[in-house]
Amino acid sequence: MTRPRMIFPKARNAVASKPESTDDYQIYATYRRTTEGSYMGQLKVVRKTDGRLLFPFTGAPDIGPFTDGDQAREAAQRHGETVVQSDLDNPEP
């Protein structure tokens, strides 16, 4: 069974505006179960102003393991909020 992929459309205008608040980001936090029975957080963070995928990136750390799915999802959400705040403080081009 394959899951459908999340596809994020790119912004249409070539000149993207600078992100100004957390509303300019979308955080997708979820979890998956490993073969050992633990749970790993999964995260995607997208900057809405230009459609840039900020997380995950090549070499991104794993979130977990945790003993239950809610803990994994909450940890992913917290990590996503940290990524957003870091990008607001110092936006990547």
From TrEMBL:
Where does this protein have compositionally biased stretches of type Polar residues?
83-93
Q: Which InterPro entries match?
A: DUF6723
Sorted alphabetically, which Pfam families does this protein's record hold? DUF6723 (PF20484)
Task: Identify the stretch(es) annotated as Disordered.
Answer: 61-93
Compositionally biased intervals (Basic and acidic residues) = 70-81
Mind telling me what this protein is named? Uncharacterized protein
Origin organism of this chain? Answer: Paraburkholderia terrae
